[in-house]
Amino acid sequence: MHCKQSADDMKRTTVSFEDDQYEILEKWADKEIRTVPNLITAIVVSVLRGEAPKAPQFEEGKNEDK
Questions:
Q1: How far apart are CA 40 and CA 53, in angstroms?
Q2: Would you give the distance in Å from CA 42 to the centre of its chain?
Q3: Rounded to 5 degrees, what are φ and ψ at 44?
Q4: Taking the model in full, what pTM does it have?
Q5: Long-range contacts: 28-33, Cβ < 8 Å, 24+?
Q6: DSSP code for 61
Q7: Burial level of 28, CB count in 10 A (0-12/13-18/19+)?
Q8: Which of 4, 23, 25, 55 is buried deepest, with most CB atoms within 10 A?
Q9: What is the DSSP letter of 62?
Q10: Mean pLDDT by 10-residue block, N- to C-terminus, for the chain (66 residues)?
C-alpha cells in the first residue's frame, strides 16, 4: 500500500500554528529528537493509519529544557 517515495515525488504543504501550539510541538519534537516538520508528518501518518498519536504530557509552567 505505502511505498517510500523520492523527495521529488512527495507533495508538500504549509501549515500554520499559533505561537503556543508551535511551542508544544517544539517540545514534543525535542523529546523525540526530531524536527517539527518530521513530527507533524509522523502525527499525520499515524492518524491516516487509524492510530492515535501519543503526545507526551508537559507540566504547565515547568521548564522542560535540559
A1: 10
A2: 6
A3: -65, -45
A4: 0.73
A5: 28/55, 28/56, 30/64, 31/56, 31/64
A6: T
A7: buried
A8: 25
A9: -
A10: 70 94 96 96 95 84 52
Nearest to 16 by CA among 3, 27, 25: 25
Task: Give CA–CA dist 41/61, Å, rounded.
Answer: 27
> Which spans in 1-66 are helix H?
19-31, 36-48
Between CA 50 and CA 27 the distance in angstroms is 24
Grid coordinates of 4: 517510500
- Joined together, the cell numbers standing for residue 28 give 514534543
CB-CB contact of 31 with 56 (8 Å): yes
Nearest to 55, CA basis, from 35, 26, 20: 26
Cα-flanking dihedrals φ and ψ of residue 32, to 5°?
-95, 5
Residue closest to 21 by CA, chosen among 58, 52, 66, 65: 58
